[in-house]
Please model this.
Amino acid sequence: MEVEAGKLIATGMRFGLVVGRFNDVVAQRLLEGAVDTLVRHGADEGDLTVIWVPGSFEIPLAAQELAGAGGVDAVIAIGVVVRGETPHFDYVAGEVARGVGAVSMQTRVPVTFGVVTAETMEQAVDRAGGKHGNKGADAALAAIEMISLLRALRAPRSGRRRIAG
Ligand code: INI
Model:
């Protein structure tokens, strides 16, 4: 049996972080959680590129620019969409999820989802360093793991490490 899984070592990896400014106080906490996680896992702050966009709807296009330019190994999408504040919730939340997924598939660069979608602002805060963790940090970990996994999967087969369960 051959089993592959990414490692959580970010040394030498380059990351783009695309952040929607809408609900920026909460978005900032998600960004801080992501950066803290990347650095604690070995990333150099000089290898992080942070791009602010107006809102979550604009995240996919900026993510595509970053991923397509080839200067990053993964993109972390960060945003805060709160249903209580907009009848457009379903459009904005749906579009950012669909869009970042499409970017990832088209560019073959991992784009992870640190976008909080919540019913209320209180729920959003709970997911940005509150009682339900930090979704930015979770997305950063997922990005590290996916870079590592893809490197293993894309390496010549004979060079792959065998991790048997
Ligand atoms: N953008 C968000 O990131 N979160 C929201 O909750 C939100 N609301 O409530 O509307 C939101 N709207 C802005 C949207 O992302 C675009 O920036 C805007 O429509 C301009 O294209």
